[in-house]
Amino acid sequence: MRPQKTLDKDVLNSLTEVFRSKGYEAASLQDLANATGLKKASLYHRFPEGKKQMAEAVLEHLAKWVEENVFKVLKDSGNPIEVRLKNAIAQIKVLYDNGNNTCIFRALSMETGISLFGFQIEKGIKEWIDAFEAIGKELELNSKKAKDYAYQTIIDIQGSLILTSTLHNPKIFEEALKRVTNRYLA
């Protein structure tokens, strides 16, 4: 068997960019092929179930990245909370390219995407909430306040991504992440 010329990680990163920028409905097979540098037949060879399987692979790829680079960092009891939170925030900046990238949950929750990927999106959002709620509890916030902080953190991140994109102002995202940090460390 011939070695693959395009690595799976590169393919997934390219597919991610198309789904982030166009959403599920508007992303054509040609867009996906062009982004990956593969022919449509090669994409179907890797993803026999088509575009839906590609989007599922993107969700799984990003979930693993977030688990490794954000959640694992937040849970690392070998570091003080301040260090963990700041390191996780730094990784969130990487994930969203300082506010320039759309959240994949938002991109895939439009139109028919929500009916196809609603379970994965809901699971992913709950994992974000759980991770930040755990930080709140570790800071000895009561359960309600820890949950409220977690919700507000997700609202700040997601809302700032929309505003940053709409208003073309990355400072909005940067300021939102500062608010998240200050919320937990004040």
Explain how this protein is built.
The structure is a single chain. The chain is an all-alpha fold and 186 residues long. Helices cover 78% and strands 0% of the residues. Helix 5 runs antiparallel to helix 9 (171-185). The relative contact order is 0.11. The model has no long low-confidence stretch (mean pLDDT 94).
What is the approximate shape?
A: elongated
- Secondary structure class reads mainly alpha
Helix coverage percent of residues? over 70%
Question: Gyration radius, to the nearest Å?
Answer: 18 Å
Report the β-strand fraction as a percent range: under 5%
- Count of DSSP strands: 0
Helix tally? Answer: 9
Q: What is the CA–CA distance across the termini?
A: 57 Å
Helix and strand topology:
Elements: H1 8-26, H2 29-36, H3 40-46, H4 51-75, H5 81-95, H6 104-108, H7 113-138, H8 143-167, H9 171-185
Which terms summarize this structure?
mainly alpha, 186 residues, 9 helices
Brief write-up:
This protein has 186 residues and is mainly α. The protein has 9 helices and no strands.
